[in-house]
Write the structure tokens for this entry.
Amino acid sequence: MHLSRCALTLVATMLAGIGFAQATPIAPNLITNGSFENPSVGSGYQIFTNGNVPGWTSNHNEIEIDYSNILGGPAYAGRQSAELNGTTFDTISQTVTGLTPGALYTLSWAYGSRPGYGPQQTRVSFGGETITTDASTGAAASSLDWMLNTFVVSADASSETLSFAALNLPGYNPSGGNEIDAVSLIAVPEPGSLALLGTALIGLGLISRRRARTSKR
């Protein structure tokens, strides 16, 4: 049960309107190692096989962790970030457990454009459905440039998989780019006013009761 793009924006706007500040965490981050600080790569970079980067797995059994300053600028948070285009177009994923079916969560991450590596795109999915696609030309920037993404998502089950997939498109460089940092998933508070908001959104058809009613993108 996920929200459409219009519903995501409307929920975030309505939450802000009733005084729920997204900038102030009121629940723990459910993502493990969201800023990719573990393991440390010192002042360089390193490619790790699955099982060696807490919380994350790779479709190609390789997760590149970078000390971000070597890419042209600091990390969005901490010192390190993950690079999806380590040696190929990779997908990294984390299965988040302990979710409440039907509950709302604030999902955020920073997308980094690495300069000098041409066009880059990353498709972001939660629970098997596309949330958005981050994109960058990767050409004009002279330094590593970060863009923060924030969406409100809902859980269908007690565990859902979050994935970041580098897209293999014509003219794209598989050996560098698509940096990910500062990944978080935080439960949205649900006092009486928020429960009423959810009921209203369901009544408006903005939150699907079943995934089958949510359009695929």
Summary: The radius of gyration is 18 Å. The CA atoms of residues 108 and 184 lie 5 Å apart. The longest helix spans residues 5-17.
